[in-house]
Amino acid sequence: MKNSKVSIDACLACMIECEKCAISCLNMVGHQECVKLCRDCADICDLCAKLCARDSQFADALCALCIKCCEACAMECEKYADHAACCKACAEACRKCAENCKM
Questions:
Q1: Is 96 helix (H, G, I), strand (E, B) or coil?
Q2: Which of 62, 64, 77, 83 has the highest CB neighbour count under 10 A?
C-alpha cells in the first residue's frame, strides 16, 4: 500500500459509516443483507486500519479483502440510497475506501 495514511483514514471513515448504517437499517424491512454486509465491512475496515497502522506483513492481503467487502457493501447499500440517507453515505464511504485501498 503506497499511501497508508490515506487508506487508514478511509478505512476508519468507512467503518463508522457502516456501523451507523447497520444500526439504522436494523428496523427497516428487507434490509437484512445490508445490515450483515455493513457489519462485516465495518469489522474488516477496522482490522485493515490497524494492520496498516502497524505496517503488518499481512496488510496488503487484508486490503485486498477489504476492497472486495467494501465493493459488495456499496452495491447493497446503493439499492436503498434513494430512500435511506444512511445507505447513501455508507455506499459513498465504501467506494472511497475501496479506491484508497487500491493505491
A1: helix
A2: 77
Nearest to 13 by CA among 43, 45, 50: 45
d(CA 32, CA 26): 7
Q: In which residue are the cell numbers 476492497 written?
A: 67
pLDDT at 44 over 80: yes
Give the DSSP H/E element, type plus range, for residue 2.
none
Give the H or E element holding residue 40: helix 32-53
What confidence tier does 103 reach under pLDDT thresholds 50, 70, 90? confident
Structural domain that includes position 69: 4-102
Q: What is the CATH number of the domain that holds 90?
A: 1.20.1270.360
Does the pTM surpass 0.90? The reply is yes
